[in-house]
Design a protein that fits this description.
heterodimer; A: 112 residues; alpha/beta; three-stranded parallel β-sheet; 5 helices; 12% strand; B: 179 residues; mainly alpha; 4 helices; rod-shaped
């Protein structure tokens, strides 16, 4: 099994930003395009370690995980993506919510 | 004859001793029960006090978060020696404080833990759904309808916390009435 472990706080940011790259550094779009999507495309399993982060804006999570779910589908998400996040129950629930909403086609409509 | 008298005396003394012992025992039990009731009342009072304090602190933190989020969205958070990224970082820390305070309240009222968690999550989701922005060009105008959503989310959370507070107080009144 080809596996990729992403240590979020170390490899990306300990205080992620907003939705789009144009909103500044460490955006959800950047995380999805530079880390998540390539890892999902080239591995059987992707483990994202997300503990030790100050906090996650819902915009970031929606753009990173919600849009990823839309792009690759629920089957790939269930099979490949594992999230390790134990120190922020709200963010953990928000990730599940946005994946579910985007898969059901009722994702949050981002402000462009 | 003398032996019978001594025996009667002993029996009578024993009977006296038993009676006074029973009385003393009963008195001890009554005072013990009063002490336990008093401690239970005190514990009840302290618990209510803790809940009300936790709610008050949560409200204060959440209102502070709203103020900070608005400032970031308006690109107006430049305190001296504080750049926009610092403001975002401090706001994120404050939002984490709100989540932690919500967890403390969940622990104080386990029977409402699910509702408290959901309320904090919904509030946080609405507050940060378009947060943060990073440049003046992206800043929202004061008339932007998204500020209405933020205030509605805050109002919903405030109402929920008020309901918990009044629920706790009315239970407390019932408790004291039943004493």
């Amino acid at each position: 099994v080809k596996r990729r472990r992403i240590k979020f706080a170390k490899e990306f940011a300990d205080c992620p930003g907003g939705r789009y790259r144009r909103y500044g550094q460490f955006s959800g779009e950047a995380f999805r395009e530079d880390f998540l999507k390539p890892a999902i495309d080239s591995n059987d399993e992707v483990i994202v370690e997300m503990d030790g982060v100050i906090g996650f804006p819902a915009s970031f999570l929606d753009e990173a995980f919600g849009i990823l779910a839309e792009q690759v589908g629920g089957d790939v998400i269930n099979r490949k993506l594992k999230i390790e996040l134990t120190d922020n129950r709200v963010a953990r629930a928000q990730i599940d919510d946005c994946i579910r909403k985007h898969l059901e086609g009722e994702g949050n409509i981002p402000v462009s | 004859m003398i032996a019978a008298q001594v025996s009667a005396q002993v029996a009578s003394g024993w009977a006296d001793f038993t009676r006074s012992d029973v009385i003393a025992g009963l008195a001890l039990l009554v005072s013990l029960a009063a002490l336990l009731v008093n401690r239970a009342d005190r514990k009840h009072e302290l618990h209510l006090g803790e809940i009300l304090t936790a709610i008050r602190e949560l409200e204060a933190i959440c209102h502070d978060c709203l103020r900070r989020v608005e400032a970031v969205l308006l690109f107006r958070c430049h305190a001296p020696n504080n750049d926009h990224i610092d403001c975002h970082r401090q706001t994120t820390l404050k939002l984490s404080d709100a989540i932690a305070q919500g967890e403390r309240l969940e622990n104080l009222i386990p029977c409402l833990a699910k509702e408290i968690f959901r309320s904090i999550k919904d509030w946080h989701t609405t507050l940060t759904m378009d947060y943060p922005i990073s440049s003046e060009e992206e800043a929202l105008l004061l008339s932007d309808p998204r500020f209405t959503y933020l205030h509605n989310a805050q109002r919903t959370l405030d109402n929920f916390l008020s309901e918990i507070r009044s629920g706790c107080l009315s239970r407390q009144i019932k408790f004291w009435k039943s004493r």
